[in-house]
Design goal:
- Chains A, B: This is AcrR family transcriptional regulator.
- Chains A, B: Keywords: DNA-binding.
- The structure is a homodimer.
- By secondary structure, the first copy, chain A, is mainly alpha-helical.
- Chains A and B meet through helix 1, helix 6, helix 7, helix 9 and helix 10 of A and helix 1, helix 6, helix 7, helix 9 and helix 10 of B.
- Chain B binds a DNA duplex through helix 2 and helix 3.
DNA sequence: CGGAATAGGTACCGTACGGTACGGTTCTTC
DNA sequence: GAAGAACCGTACCGTACGGTACCTATTCCG
């Protein structure tokens, strides 16, 4: 994981470094390990600066989410002309990327944090995570699906429904299992392949798009 | 919600009452609201008894999970002879039950609790929830799917894969969204219907099992 | 050069939690 | 009916956190 990639727009380099350290602490030890004193010690800054920059602990958590998301960028290829093979490839790449993002240390830690808070803060962090965290990946998938329809390769009434179908086929209950502490898949690529196969059977227009059943060795 | 249904095997009535109160506190205010002092006050018992019965706070949490699971029973109809309509009905009922269970107050609260702890306790609670919490519902689905195959109505290579496909089609990312604080679906039945349609297209043997596309008004 | 802003270090405060100890009360059991 | 266990209520302890205050060091800028 690159520690100090492109600087964020909203934070000074010093603040970014502190936020990166905060994420490290959170990933290592969960929200109990992310104390203001501990962060100040680990990041060589003062608690007073933390409160000046972020207001209070909740502000810090929100800043961490915003900071992490500023580091996520996805390529958008929705403009391309799609062949059926290209669509399948792009869908599989999307599915694999999705699985990898969801299985990432930082993503899991932030989701755990927001879920833990959601029962008492009116799910402010949860909203943040849903609205800003998934926007990029949602937009990418949405673009891909719409492009597939425009190219006559996919058929569906509601793009939302189709996207959620794809998401369900790719992820199933894996995200929750990982949030609960279970290890991820051994082979994301195989899972992505199977999910896209099923998705194309459901929503593809190419009638021979269903492949032979796989050896099914993913889980 | 029936407060005091069948008594558990592992807990005395008094302990069950305390655990029920603990669940109520947890649902109301999240894990911050579930303090030993608060529980003792709310349940009219002494902290000393809590520690005598459950060892420590983690023991109490584990007992809450175990207690809640002892109240969940599912009907098992896997012995029946299945027609295609009966299979579809049973699958839809299963899907609807699954959505309702996942959206339940107590289920969400316990999952949030276990997820919050999973980053620091080696996911002991998470394992508990996964291994014991889903066993019943998993067994029911597994039985249904296997019965469908025996009756020649479903085809698949791996029952696990098929089950996860069904699960993904039914739930998609809804569980995580609800854990993050979002409201559930407006119409679980419509979602169940759509998911089972898709599942039967993928794994049914009856070639005309795919129905006309629905009006898609679930979400 | 000098003052103001910025930020690090540390000490401190109030609070609330998990866990323990103890005296009094009810319930069982012989 | 008495001995004893189970249990309630409460008070208590140590700890650790969030948040604040104060003081110093560095940097920036006129």
């Amino acid at each position: 994981m690159p520690a100090d990639t492109a600087a964020s727009a909203k934070f000074t380099p010093r603040q970014s470094a502190v936020l990166a350290e905060a994420l490290r602490l959170l990933v290592e030890g969960g929200d109990k390990a992310l104390t203001t004193s501990g962060l100040a010690r680990a990041a060589n800054c003062s608690k007073e600066s933390l409160y000046k920059w972020f207001g209070d602990r909740d502000g810090l958590l929100a800043a961490m989410i915003s900071f992490q998301q500023s580091k996520v960028r996805t390529a958008d290829r929705s403009g391309e002309r799609l062949s059926v093979e290209a669509l399948r490839d792009h869908l599989e790449i999307f599915a694999r990327d999705l699985l990898e993002v969801l299985a990432g240390d930082v993503s899991l830690a932030l989701n755990r944090l927001a879920i833990g808070q959601s029962s008492r803060d009116g799910s402010k962090l949860g909203k943040l995570l849903l609205e800003h965290g998934r926007r990029e990946i949602d937009r990418r998938a949405r673009g891909l699906i719409e492009a597939g329809k425009r190219s006559g390769l996919l058929r569906f009434n509601d793009a939302d429904d189709a996207y959620h179908t794809l998401y369900g086929l790719v992820v199933s209950d894996l995200h929750v299992r990982m949030l609960l502490g279970e290890l991820g898949l051994k082979d994301n690529t195989a899972q992505a392949h199977k999910a896209v196969d099923a998705f194309l059977i459901l929503h593809g227009t190419n009638k021979d798009s269903g492949e032979a059943p796989r050896a099914s060795a993913a889980r």
